[in-house]
Amino acid sequence: MFGRGKYISFIILFALFSYMLLINFYTPLMADDYRYAQNWEQTRHLESWSDIVDFQVVHYLEWGGRSVAHSFAQAMLFLGKPVFNVLNSLVFILLIVCIYYHARGQVTKDFEPMFLLVVMFLTWFCIPTLGETSIWLTGSCNYLWMTTLVLVFLLPYRLAVVKNFSQNKLMTDFLPTVMFIFGVLAGWTNENTGLMLIGALVLANLYCWQQRCLKNWMLFGLLGAVFGYGCLVFAPGNYVRIEEATAEDYSFVQNHIIDPMKTISTLTLKQLPIYLLLMYLVRRIFQYKKQFLNSGKWLAWKEENAEILWSSCCYIGLSFLALLVMCAAPTFPQRAGMGAMVFLLIGTLNLWRLNIYAECISVKNKKNFAILMVGLWSIVAIWAGNGYHTLYVENQARLANIIEAKANGVQDMRVQAFSVENRSAFGIVVVNDVGEELYKFRSVYYAKYFGFATMARQ
Hints:
This protein is an all-alpha fold and 458 residues long. The chain folds into two domains: 4-360, no CATH class; 367-458, no CATH class. The protein is 72% helix and 2% strand. A two-stranded parallel ribbon has the order 1-2. It is globular and about 85 Å long.
């Protein structure tokens, strides 16, 4: 029989899945979606899997190395938005579950409802521009899906570090090959998350080597990730794109110091709840140390919990590294901080495994805290849901106008702007609409997709 905790955890995950499915349904294709829904020459829509392969070859050579992410995006555009709606909602749930497993250091069939609720709440409110990274199709495939891929790949390493990973003879034979291939895909995700992944793999291998539990599959996974990351960053298209990005209005101080610091400051403010929780947990550790410093209890406690403290430092340190390396990029959009935020959250919640927090919150306070989290999430969810519903209604009207214009032979299409504000509801609602200028890249995507000579927003 299911226990009460299982039922509550199932309700939490099912409610979140249902809500994500709803707002994914309401979200139209937008911006880069229209580019990746066509062949490279923008002469027709995607018609076969070979179109995707051909597109990605040229894309790799002339635009950028994110072949894994954009292959997923094009596959979803080819299969249809309804398929993406379901899969994207499932991937978001998988992200929550992976964060939970990494933070707890074990994979279990049961979830602790309060801890799961905290993971969901902090993920929901602290993900940078959630609409761009987890709802918009192209953005989700680049950030939500790639971050989740990295966490799934890292899970065996996480379990090996806490000595919770077991393997049978069949796994021993095939795991190195599987981990190498999986590592190539995980390393070939995006630039700062891929580097963060390699850092985590190096640390995990060193730790297990020191503990005399290093396995050959761990090394093969690391080699695969390094190879995949090399394919990502050394793609010929990256250098073409960098030249275009830095050709005009480039300033080293502005592009690599001022702008990145602004983005990091914005991300830090958005992730303030995680930092407040981290400060509270660290404060409790120092209080415990002060209380038992002069006795053998502190040394014994520190030795007993060495893995927890080490793991948290690694996750948090790597999250900072992922932000700092973005200073080398020509631009640093907020959405690029998603992987760093997830590692920061895991490192913080991992500290909750320490046995000095069990008595900190009473059962009554836990219930009140749970009610507060559900209440705040519900308010923002309703706000965002209303925004996405409005966007859906207005987009349906726009599509009807486009069909009518095509029937009347219109060549220069003008559309009304959406009334929904971009990045509203704490960044949950995303509106990357067609541009106002006729020959800017986004306007060209829309015009080519719908078959107009030009298309722009009025």
